[in-house]
Amino acid sequence: MLEYFKFFYISHNYGIGYIMTNIVFVAACMVLLGDFNWKKKGTLVRFICQFLICWLWTVLFDTVYYAITKGVGAGNMDRIMMAVFILFYCAAFSKLSWTTRILRTVVFYTCYMTMLPVSEPIGEALQNVNADYFVWSQHLTWIIVVVMTMVVAWFLTYFSTEKLILVQKVPALLVVIMSCLILLVETVGIVRNVPESFKSYMVLIGGAGFLLEILCYYLFYRIGKEYDRNLELMAISQKENLDQELFQSTRAVYEEMHEIRHEMKNHLAYIHILFEKGENERLEEYLKEVSRETENLFSFVECGNDVINAVMNHIMTQAKAENITLEPQLIVPPVLPYPETELCSLLSNLVENALEAAGKSGEKNPVVTVGIRPQQDYLFIHVTNPVNPQISNRRHLKLQTTKENVKVHGYGTKIIQNIAIKNQGSVRYDIEDGRFVADVMLYLGEDSYGETKAGNL
Fold it and tell me: How many CA within 13 A on the CB side of residue 417?
């Protein structure tokens, strides 16, 4: 069992580069797929401890593999180990979205495998030219691999799909297929043990595969960013429309209040006459009539947050038009750490979906509840609505839109999910007591919300 360790780590039969490339590969995988918050204290210590465990795992894997195969195929041993390790780390330790995990894992491993046929002949070529002058060229291979590994890790982290609101599945699948084809070509070249005369072609194939992989991923990222930009523009337009409607509603309220102010004297005079005449029944009916007239006037939401005010008042008007009762229970921080467009899109999609379902529930007076409150470091959004009892719970939980324009409206739940994930939160859907329940949790940050204000009707 110790023969491998002596051969590779003590005798350095493959040189110091063998150890360095393995160390850098493990560290790069952890940076790409881990959840290390470098701003928090103790993160560096946790990273080092986890790195030592992972590196020892790779050494143990190679040791067992070397002992089982008795050194046969030792040149490909690390390729197998790296594939097993990155898949294991991706599944066991990463907390990123599955799309990001798969893309980073496949693209990074493919790029790493194409680096080897590119880097190895360069050092060998310099040694063939003048071995005495280019003594340092024996280290050039692993230095190239280390530098390229760090560049690819930075590239995938900087152009991260985790930042995208909505990841397109088909382009992501095409990137994975392209990666598999490039790996297949590299594997065929390794298995067939190409002759020395063909190594120059392998350099070209490896370099082309590396560049093609990077280009495909970058194009996929740009497509996602462009789609996000379109969604953001739609959200901005929606927010502007909500602000305009809120302005019109507020102006209408003030105009009605101005009219009531002028009519108040007449109301009071008539009430006084009915009171003096002792006509209590007519007085009671008159007071009820006046109350009904003013009831809708003061039915608006004011929770201290402008974005939520705009969304809720717009939806309140929509609910009244559809004879749906909207019951908001809002305890909202005046300032929230989310972009206004994301908050507007999230809340609008949640509540409009609830109104749509409530309108088709079959109830005479459907009620939709919306609760928003901060708790510890998170903002909780709780939306409930009645559902059609003739449709199974399983079908309700599939969240399939019933609107005509499926291409536009079908992305509502995906947008909700991705906004929640982007803000370190989560989404849960369930059916409880005949009502559909949507729970969204968004990370606020430590002490980021300060004083809160309750919103009332």
Answer: 12
